[in-house]
Amino acid sequence: MSDFSRKSQLWIGALLGGALAIGGCSVDARRAPPSTEGQQPHLVTEAALPANGTGAEIEGAATAPEDGQWVRPAKDFASSRYSGLTEINAQNVGSLKPAWTFDTGVRKGAEGAPLVVGGTMYLVTPYPNVLYAFDLTKPGAPVKWSYHPRPLPSAQGEACCDVVNRGAAYADGKIVYATLDNTVVAVNAATGVEVWRTKLGDIAKGETMTMAPLIVKDRVLVGNRGGELGVRGWVKGLDLATGAVTWTALNTGPDSVVLIGSSFKPFYQKDRGANLGVETWPGTAWQTGGAGMWGWISYDPALDLVFYGTSNPGPWNPEQRPGDNKWSATMFARRPGTGEAVWAYQMNPHDLHDYDGVNENLLLDIPWKGARRGVLLHPDRNGYMYAIDRATGEVVYAKPYVHITSSDSVNVATGEIALNPAKEPRMGHVVRDICPAAPGGKDWQPSAFSPRTGLVYVPHQNLCMDEEPTSVSYIAGTPYVGMNVRIKPGIGGNRGFVTAWDPAAGRAIWRISEPFPVWSGALATAGDVVFYGTMEGWFKAVDARTGKLLWKYKTSSGIIGQPIAYRGPDGKEYIAVMSGVGGWSGAIVSGNLDALDSSAALGFVNAMHDLPTVTPKGGTLYVFAIR
Looking at the whole model, is its pTM more than 0.85? Predict the structure, then answer.
């Protein structure tokens, strides 16, 4: 048996080997959004969209005029995932047809976003992380070149949640991305020749890399993952020209290595104090405390701040790590040039339920109490939509966007989350109906924003779980979880939603139910169309104002990729998306897991046992145009 196979068996079996009896998900109406029970799949209008939109706008300094390109997965520094192209619109999107396709030959979860720079499209596959360049000036977009970084095969065995890659970034003539074995590479965008490569983490400790970098000025910003293996999380700034590491900020430990100094001014008292990255942990547990950074980074040029969230503390069993466990599940604001921390806000102190804080942060200016307020909008795993002041870290509001039983509310005056003690995991007990489940109200899959409607379009899930803590010991490079988990459908029985959120009013406008978690990213366009994919393989277009289904196309596999829009050399608008089921939610298919093993994939198989009946593995790039 290969090392990869042995490690896979650890994840499938020994990691969560307990036997939980699963009951139905009960309903606590005081913590639930309006019920959609018995009406799925369907569209529900929950509030009226103002005729002139919500008044929310993209932070102006963080975006640029539409040029038809797509040079980073989030489109702009504000993470809007908004295209200003209008050729494909709500009136004609029904005529969308495939223009060309490309099969990568890789049958793992395809979570990445293609890039388009000039007349070339770039695509990074899941492991083995091959980079393809397609010539958009020629019919059928033939491959111009491919680059093979050859990451270490043993890295596959350290990836808890599939061997995904979320994409590359372009700057200064280079395509830059991370490989699974903790290497960042820069490739000449014209020739495919490697410019530099920098090895960062250590797979022997359980570290891997799956995130898409953000390039700010001359800094390439990246982070690690491995919270389920007891890694110590970090974010690094690399020199764009040479790949040299210019700074490293650890997410646990003393202030000196977290890069907390005299400029650090958290808004809330609970986040103030010396060396909290040590003092809020028992003993030396901070050294194996997780808090990776594998999600999304946004950048506000006006403030010269980058924003990102950290992941869960390790192990999952909270009784083994009393304290707030800083700086896990925390939002950071840092200087991109030096890594210096300016403020931090811990959303989930002493995280009980694997509520990573790594989800996207959309930089918006919203009307608030008679003035404009610059906020980052963050849909957290804990089920709350946070609007946080970008300059200070003050929580403007935190409102539920999914059914929540794990907590009651967030106090914006103190920043504290009011946990529900009945849902706290305890050794020797099975705690049932914890909502949202460990993947959260939403996971990594990124939202989109349209300045035309002022709405944020949130792809997410509707899941609850039962948990039972177990004792676990740290062994480098092996699972460090300490929790039996069974994930199950949430209220109403459907497992996914697309929600249109009014960021100014802090409420949902409409909501689409889907039978499976909506694990793809969203794309909003100036044609008033929103695109997203489903785990059964449908690629859908809906009306940005009403949520009405306008078009759908069945691809060869479930869609967990990030759709983009671009203008081709022929002047036409195109929509592109990867099809290839996998990731944590689709591991039952991509990892050939046993549908009868409800503990597999950290308990996610229990909620996804029927997915193999509706989609096979895949790995195909689809590009659409009006025909």
Answer: yes
